[in-house]
Specification:
The chain is mostly helical and 124 residues long. It has two domains: 8-38, no CATH class; 40-105. Helix content is 69%, strand content 0%. The chain has four helices and no strands. It has helices spanning 3-14, 19-35, 42-72, 79-104. Helix 3 packs antiparallel against helix 4. The chain starts with a helix and ends in a 20-residue tail after the last helix.
Length: 124
């Protein structure tokens, strides 16, 4: 990538006022996290953990409420329909757990292979 292309890319990323640009920036944000290449500070990691804890609590309360509805209801035809709204919430929970695991447990850095022999030797 040339310097001119890089400058144009930086300017395009800063123009975050139009919906498509905002959408592209958000997609780039999530791709960087999911790739495991993003570097996070301790505060960012704690914040991400708090988001996951929030989703876990919300899902636990939601599922408890849905299951109590199933237990209380005596009608058979509504039991399956009661749990479907919770599936969307469960998908969000799994998404945030995936991002948190990628954030907190990044892949190990590749091991550099050091050649031995006359090519790597700097001594005479």
């Amino acid at each position: 990538m040339s310097l001119h292309e890089w400058e144009r890319d930086v300017l395009n990323r800063q123009r975050n006022i139009v919906f498509p640009d905002t959408n592209l920036n958000e997609g780039r944000f999530y791709r960087n996290i999911a790739s495991g290449k993003a570097v996070f500070s301790r505060g960012q990691k704690i914040s991400l953990l708090l988001i996951v804890v929030f989703f876990i609590v919300v899902n636990a309360v939601d599922f408890a409420g849905r299951i109590s509805e199933v237990i209380v209801q005596n009608r058979l035809y509504d039991r399956e329909l009661v749990l479907w709204p919770s599936m969307g919430s469960l998908v969000w929970l799994l998404f945030w757990i995936f991002l948190t695991v990628k954030c907190l447990l990044p892949p190990p850095a590749p091991v550099r292979k050091h050649r031995r022999g006359y090519r790597s030797s700097g001594r005479i």
